[in-house]
Design a protein that fits this description.
alpha+beta; homohexamer; Ribosomal Protein S5, domain 2; four-stranded antiparallel beta sheet
Chain lengths: 256, 256, 256, 256, 256, 256
Amino acid sequence: MGTPTDKTRFDGRAADELRPVTIETDFTEAPEASVLITMGKTRVLCSASVEDSVPRWMRDAEPAKGWVTAEYSMIPGATAPRFRRERRGAGGRTREIERLVGRSLRAVCDLEKLPGHTIWLDCDVLQADGGTRTAAITGAFVALALACGRLVERGAIAEMPIRQSLAAISCGVIGEQVLLDLPYEEDSKADVDMNVVMTGDGRFVEVQGTGEESTYSHAELLAMLELAGKGIAELSAAQQAALPQEPIYAKLFKKA
Amino acid sequence: MGTPTDKTRFDGRAADELRPVTIETDFTEAPEASVLITMGKTRVLCSASVEDSVPRWMRDAEPAKGWVTAEYSMIPGATAPRFRRERRGAGGRTREIERLVGRSLRAVCDLEKLPGHTIWLDCDVLQADGGTRTAAITGAFVALALACGRLVERGAIAEMPIRQSLAAISCGVIGEQVLLDLPYEEDSKADVDMNVVMTGDGRFVEVQGTGEESTYSHAELLAMLELAGKGIAELSAAQQAALPQEPIYAKLFKKA
Amino acid sequence: MGTPTDKTRFDGRAADELRPVTIETDFTEAPEASVLITMGKTRVLCSASVEDSVPRWMRDAEPAKGWVTAEYSMIPGATAPRFRRERRGAGGRTREIERLVGRSLRAVCDLEKLPGHTIWLDCDVLQADGGTRTAAITGAFVALALACGRLVERGAIAEMPIRQSLAAISCGVIGEQVLLDLPYEEDSKADVDMNVVMTGDGRFVEVQGTGEESTYSHAELLAMLELAGKGIAELSAAQQAALPQEPIYAKLFKKA
Amino acid sequence: MGTPTDKTRFDGRAADELRPVTIETDFTEAPEASVLITMGKTRVLCSASVEDSVPRWMRDAEPAKGWVTAEYSMIPGATAPRFRRERRGAGGRTREIERLVGRSLRAVCDLEKLPGHTIWLDCDVLQADGGTRTAAITGAFVALALACGRLVERGAIAEMPIRQSLAAISCGVIGEQVLLDLPYEEDSKADVDMNVVMTGDGRFVEVQGTGEESTYSHAELLAMLELAGKGIAELSAAQQAALPQEPIYAKLFKKA
Amino acid sequence: MGTPTDKTRFDGRAADELRPVTIETDFTEAPEASVLITMGKTRVLCSASVEDSVPRWMRDAEPAKGWVTAEYSMIPGATAPRFRRERRGAGGRTREIERLVGRSLRAVCDLEKLPGHTIWLDCDVLQADGGTRTAAITGAFVALALACGRLVERGAIAEMPIRQSLAAISCGVIGEQVLLDLPYEEDSKADVDMNVVMTGDGRFVEVQGTGEESTYSHAELLAMLELAGKGIAELSAAQQAALPQEPIYAKLFKKA
Amino acid sequence: MGTPTDKTRFDGRAADELRPVTIETDFTEAPEASVLITMGKTRVLCSASVEDSVPRWMRDAEPAKGWVTAEYSMIPGATAPRFRRERRGAGGRTREIERLVGRSLRAVCDLEKLPGHTIWLDCDVLQADGGTRTAAITGAFVALALACGRLVERGAIAEMPIRQSLAAISCGVIGEQVLLDLPYEEDSKADVDMNVVMTGDGRFVEVQGTGEESTYSHAELLAMLELAGKGIAELSAAQQAALPQEPIYAKLFKKA
């Protein structure tokens, strides 16, 4: 496996280096909170909309709970060639991503602290260059945190329903090299593609490692997990910097 | 009818005054051209994607032609409360807008100068505060012009397939007042709602005037058309300013 | 522009002349009222069915209201070649027409006088030769009036929920000529296509003027509106003649 | 079982008596042939549209063949209460009727005499009062014969692709009585409901006898078949009378 | 017509001979009852699942009732070539079969003895070699009886809601021969195809006889009904043998 | 973490013990190969159907290739309460599983050795008690191998297009215990749920570990992977035993 510090990637990055990340809050005003996250050329607009009701199946839960769910979509202009709008039902890939984003966010939530509310995290990809699902999770977490902070602030809920921060990153194997944060160019030729969702204090929420018409060894698996951990730590810092510098948010980023 | 210069509107504008307009080109890089148009709080991302084929029904046209078509969508976070994603087929309003945008753009195109190409204009509303369909037309025209200019530049087509510029604006009647460019706050209480699409040199492409559980007189119709003409002239200037200051684009804005 | 009295059209009509119009009431007996309207070869069966409930979203309205809505469809044999049945959801054109018909009828209704009832106006095109949407509106108004008259008669509602009569007609520009009531033959080569919905006393409900890969001048717009006004007056007379000669219907056709 | 000549039915008919039947050809002009069939209050518009191609799966058949198929639909105003339009796919009952109509017509066709053509029989029910599927078959046969006669006349095909005539009728059992041609009033309380499709010379094409939450005996089955035979003979005469009195049609009604 | 005892069929059977039948109960444990029925190579898994509610439209029935309904599906591997999964809505054939199975079962049920319960009969075809719909009915009856017996046993309902047993078989005409229980090989070349559903004591529930691009005589109809009666009697015996030898089931098979 | 050898599970198994596994080949005859795999109460019928064409997008591949794809479905009777048939499009969970099964199988295939053929692996769950997706993969591999072996045998392809064997198993964490092969009872209360797909010689194809409203540590991840490895080895042996004892299959199970 390649030495992580070699700057040998097509875009000049080291194997363990993230693309430039920016997290801009309140890009739009209509939802409770919105975040435009940019990782290289990948740009995802994550909106957190609050609805004052919960899905039918959890209405009679005791004690009362809230719900956090996600939708994911790419606008047609996000890719070249143009991506065809999914108007006859979301495709398999889209549904899989939506389920992943929603499940990941709920893993760090205490839904009993959000009674009677549903928060929709809409992740609309404005430009896609690899890693849209992980960018969506990282951005959606910030939008969710901001929306929850505001609900607390205006007294709609009593306390923060989030236990800790969450971010996600991709890594992969190309030939002999283990790489962090793959853009489309690399992703399309990777032998192994892994997405890792972790909390800010280093526990796993989701690990999905897929051989792309290929298989991988135990050693490669461990190497990818290590790179992912490094990337998540950096994303975690970027998330914290993008949020207001207030205790209610700071607590989410405390290490165990 | 009210005097157009009274600054009596809820947001301090005069009756014949547009909301602040900005037109930002190349907000994303994936499509051939993209434009983020902002009119007050309404923000629409218009992407022009070029496909090297034409719809089946026009493949054997003699002489060969191209095609220009549009899709329109609102992201869920564009409104509060959240707008439900149209995944089981676009609704009636969406289809009506898409047909309007595509038809309007084609009215100023010479499709024989775009042989073998389809240009998709995707209008994705990032924030909706009234006038999204007219903002979509105004922004999509700029994206279309820019995409065509680039096709000419790199030799994919021989000359500009656009005859002249195009923009659109809404106007309406509330009680006795005839108003230009209605945000949601005004739109929701208007008795009459009119959308006007005009060329830069003052000809009509589309006039749609609708009584909202109400009717209107010939005089009101004429007053609305006059306001629309004034607004279109200003939008036309903003479009020209947003495009590169080159002859290929300047020609589109010449008056008759 | 051509002189409206020249009999120069392919079917021998003058520019400002309607096709032969017949309005036959109670063509079928199942619905509350039904109307078979014929304009030249265009034939539309308009049924008014009454339902004793209102859409969910208006159930709690204060004061109680009723609802008027429309559906539009062409039977496959209405055209040659055969028109494909819209079984996988109504297409964009169909939805646009349905919205237009429903909105137009509601513009002359006082829905508070129809509390608790929904009237469905189903416009099924049996033969299509241009102008189906305007024939649908003109016929549906008669079916609606008749259904409402009968509801009053049998005491289901206290008074007529319609303020005044309504009719619709198309006009267009072909080359230099401004023409009234275009059959398919003319419609397919028109540069401008306009649909006008007006009340019997001459106010606008809807004006939709579309350049077909073309644009039009202010003077042409005014000329089309004038022809439309003449046509609407004649249709209005035909509607009144088709309804029972009773005061409850006569009132709808009084001039302002 | 009751004596067939007792005039004891709610509408004054004898047990073995058809409702008044009228068959009006060329009710509309757009399709190759159209027939408006009326049986009591049931009215079905049957259009025969000719398409100059065949379904993909039979394109390479040797020898070349044609195809005959049917669609069935009720307009919403056909019933009270209003029938909901089937826009999200035809329902089970509709599909079953369409399959029955198409299969029945094909049973008397020689598809090799219709090479390269598809004939669509669209059966649109304008008013429904029981027996719509059998009226559809009886009417569609006339439209099909007329369309084929015209294809022969103008030389599109060499000879008549129909071997003999076809008609259909319902019968049923209510309590002890075996009845012919049931309107809705009787149909809704029948214990057994049978639809019979027969050729003009008395052979079966389709027999469908259904116990409605009930069962029936061998004797009842035979009694129903006898009534059906009588009804079919009368319908056959009405079909022949409605068609042009020319040898090409007369041949279809010859007895074996 | 051939003599029923000639062993001249491609698989060595006599004209009036069934394929080998096996009925295995409780092939799976999850539903209230399940039956794997095998007729030659045709294998259908029939599950009876009980739900403690009834469809909305019958909730307020007086006296309270239950419901029995069926669904039918073929797994893709049931045929060669592979059968395409019906994921965009069940096709016409599927719906027709489901309606037939449900209607047939209800014809022998007394739904007032099943108050508040719905029994779903799911007929999943694991292998298809002709006669799947009749095998589904024969198997589903056994699953239904077993499920009802168990509901009575554990006191969920007071008495057996089934009046008598039910089975189904196909027969047909090939050339001059009238045959019982057609596998695919014969079915695909039959001129007439008949499905008969009868009670164990010899009354008809459903008779569906279809000329396949052909017609049939009265004599052929009677011959098919006779064969069917013989087959049903044998299936009835197999059903009784497959059920527990207890009075509650034995009563269903008593002759009139 | 618990000692793997404690027999403390609700069904008496040790933490590292599989449920009883049976793999029955040729349960049905219609497809090229079929396998009924049983793991405890979970039963999945896996059919391999061969089609002599490839998807459109790979038709012009150079060199020519084949395709392997999967579909997954549960019959309604597979669960109690009854599972609702997915007739309006497969749901998110179903699509995710289908993508997983297809991708996993392709990871051990050499598609260039299957030129011009598509193999469909249909995994129909007859009874579901946890672990259906992993049972589907394990069973589908056997069906795929058998189908490919037969294609080689009859000369349709030149050599085996599979590189090595493949199996899958679930594991999870409940409280402090790390467990192998979770039935529904355990799965529904697991904090972490992991599915592992591995080759017979111990390389990873897919690792998917999900915190269920929970997170997990690096140590727990390693413990789960170890259990999975043990389970896969046992499944691999069962697969080999179920296949014919011939060299063409034996080669797939050789250790690296």
